[in-house]
Amino acid sequence: MAKRNIKVEDLRAFKFVSDPQISPDGSRIAFVYSEIDHEEDKYQRHIWFAETSTGKLTQFTYGPGADTYPRWSPDGKKLLFLSNGRQPDKKTQLYVINLGGGEAQLVADTENGVSSPAWSPDGKSLLFTSKVWTEEKPESDVKRITRIRYKFNNVGFFEGRRTHLFTVKPGAKPKQLTKGEYDVNNPKWSQDGKGITFITNMEPDQDTSKVNDIYRIPAKGGDPEKLTDSKYNISNHSHSPDGEYIAYVGTDRPEELAVDLDLFKMKIGGKPKCLTDGFNRSLGMGMGSDLRVASPDDGPVWSSDGKYIYFSTSDTPYCNLYRINTSSKKLETLVTGKSVDGVSVSDNGLIAYNAMNSLEPCELYLYDGAEKKLSDFNKKLLDKLTLSAPEHFTFQNRLGRTVDGWIMKPTGWKKGEKYPCVLEMHGGPRGIYGEGIFQEFQLLAAEGWVVIYTNPRGSAGYEEEYTQEVMRHYGEVDYDDFMDFTDEAIKQYPWIDENRLGLTGGSYGGYTTNWIIGHTDRFKAAVTCRSIANWLSKFGVSDIGFMQPESISGAKTYWGDDLLEQMKRSPIYYVDRVKTPCLLIHSEQDYRCPMPEGEQWFTALKLNNVPTELIRFPDENHELSRSGKPKHREERFQHILRWFREYL
Q1: Residue 76, phi-psi category: left (phi > 0), alpha (psi -120 to 50), beta (remainder)
Q2: Quick one: CA torsion of 618, 624, 627, 632, rounded to 10 degrees?
Q3: Considering the chain, what percentage of its residues have pLDDT values greater than 90?
Q4: Which residues of 555-571 are buried (b: 16+ CB within 10 A; e: fewer)?
Q5: What is the pTM of this model?
Q6: Cα–Cα distance measured from residue 178 to residue 223, given in angstroms and rounded to the nearest whole number
Q7: Is 622 a catalytic residue?
Q8: How many C-beta neighbours within 10 Å does residue 483 have?
Q9: Which of 125, 312, 622, 625 is catalytic?
């Protein structure tokens, strides 16, 4: 069968695998299978099973909405999961189903939905978190704001509500265990079932503090007890099988910029010990892709005997699966050559995970001493398509540092011809390119354009020093690396038409797009997505803007003597220099790089007579390109292609 180029509409045919959870006895893997319902313009998500001995795949849940977050009971006879399509209000609620037969039982039905559920060690109770009103729910729709942290991208406004801890026995009413002005994150049962630990910040300055602590509360209720000493920023944790230790991911340098997250082991009541102090890579860094459903990060995964902890993180160009000995700190790489996401381990040591590469979205894998691929949901589609395989190359930037880069030939490439080229730039700046598939890149290549991309200084997947080099120097070292990379690509691949260059990026990549066209005219067309134009305005309207001043320029604030420094790092300061036709794509519910950033850039470009358009996507947020409504994602592709066809 003759192959064809990829099309925008092929988004509808891709299948997505995420959140693999292997049963305690290792016989089955529960995972989330997602596909697009084009007519309804939404994602259908259901739970499937894979038999580890035979590889047999079967769908387990059906119906409307999204079934996610499968978790086995300790005896492997029941499964809890979250679903948002089984109740009229469409909130995500908690269900339990007996695997021996019967219908799913609604266990918790809360006003604001359920998250982070987990079984008690005896399998008789469950915990979960839910947002609750800390004061009486207001009758008015007028919002009274008292905190800096009152909204979050993809969540919305939550002022007046906090995330708190509940326990419930199936058939009984949930019991709220925590209350007050703090949020419960990453709750875990103690191994004896008598306590629950969680991560939070109860400091008086919690809105601006970068510290998180682990607390413990009796499972029957009571006052939380702090187990750590307020010197760490902790992201997640888990208990050792014997109940004596807690492993957590975090840093003991919370006030420093762009520090690595390490793995710590702490005896309860004792001092933590860093297990990854010789690793020099940050834990929890996933690979970029626009054809991926991310798996929840529940925390470090222990082996049943407590000798090992398993985790995945990026080490360019892969996201590897690692195992570390909790006593000797010996680190082993179990799986490499692709990007691993979502890891779970059975009592007998079998490992389930997802993995993708630059030509295939995530599929389900099993590791039992050797890697076994269990699913191939996208084979039927991929067998029809001619895709461009990225070619890796390196170059020396102006400081002599080796930097990674990739080039994708246009499909139908012929020797002796020259081709237009598009520079793609990731977000972050602690994003990462490597073994991850992008439909956007493949669409550009299918149009007959070269695609180049790199991990400039500031990217993840490298030693900490590399990641930190962009800190306090936005618009300097990153700009230099992008220009050096473009020069080197043209030098190494003379079939690139240096007179027909385009560039695009999103979030921080949108910032660099705006910055670059204010500092050079070498690019003939630009597409800037969910971008940043003005650090002074972003500081007050973004959900994280108030946390960023020092990372941009080294200035500590956005006012007084620091104001000009921050303004000089803003693309809008140089907008009068822009000549490159620029398309803006922005989501109206983006709270990370809010809509005013796109509006300012568009208005300034228009007033300076630069060819420009602003494409506004209603009811979308910062995640449009990865998880927005399917029809909107397709329309976004169409606008990008249209702009480059016109100006490149």
Answers
A1: left
A2: 60
A3: 88
A4: beebeeebeebbeebbb
A5: 0.97
A6: 8
A7: yes
A8: 17
A9: 622
- Summarize pLDDT for 174-196 with one digit per residue, the tens: 999 999 999 999 999 999 999 99
What pLDDT does residue 174 have? 97
- Report the candidate in 133, 126, 201, 197 with the shortest Cα–Cα distance to residue 167: 126
Q: Determine the average pLDDT of the residues in 514-523.
A: 99
Residue with tokens 């930190």: 468
Q: Is 510 helix (H, G, I), strand (E, B) or coil?
A: helix
Asked whether 198 and 165 are in contact (CB, 8 A), the reply is yes
Q: What tokens appear for 96 in the block? A: 């339990």
Strand 93-98: give its sheet, edge to edge: 67-72, 78-83, 93-98, 105-108
Burial (CB < 10 A; 0-12, 13-18, 19+), residue 105, is middle
Check: CATH 3.40.630.30 for 4-285?
A: no
* pLDDT value for 315: 95
Round the average pLDDT of the chain to a whole number and report it.
96
Could you read off the pLDDT of 401-430 as tens digits, one per residue? 899 999 999 999 999 999 999 999 999 999
What share of the chain in percent tops pLDDT 70? Answer: 100
Number of Cβ within a 10 Å radius of residue 60: 18
**Residue 89: what pLDDT?**
65
Query: Does the pLDDT value for residue 86 go beyond 90?
Result: no
Provide the residue ranges of all domains of the chain, joining segments of one domain with +: 4-285, 388-647
pLDDT tens-digit readout, 586-596:
999 999 999 99
Enter the CATH code of domain 388-647.
3.40.50.1820
Q: Is 334 exposed, middle or buried (0-12, 13-18, 19+ CB in 10 A)?
A: middle
The question of whether 38 is a catalytic residue gets the answer no
Best CA proximity match to 577, nearest among 496, 494, 515, 524? 515
Angle value at C-alpha 562, between 559 and 566, nearest 5 degrees? 95
Cα-based distances in Å from 348 to 57, 64, 121, 351, 503? 21, 35, 18, 9, 49
- Written as six digits, the tokens of 607 are 């007033």
- What confidence tier does 65 reach under pLDDT thresholds 50, 70, 90? confident
**Among residues 73, 507, 570, 625, which one is catalytic?**
507
Residues 299, 305, 309: CA angle, nearest 5 degrees? 30
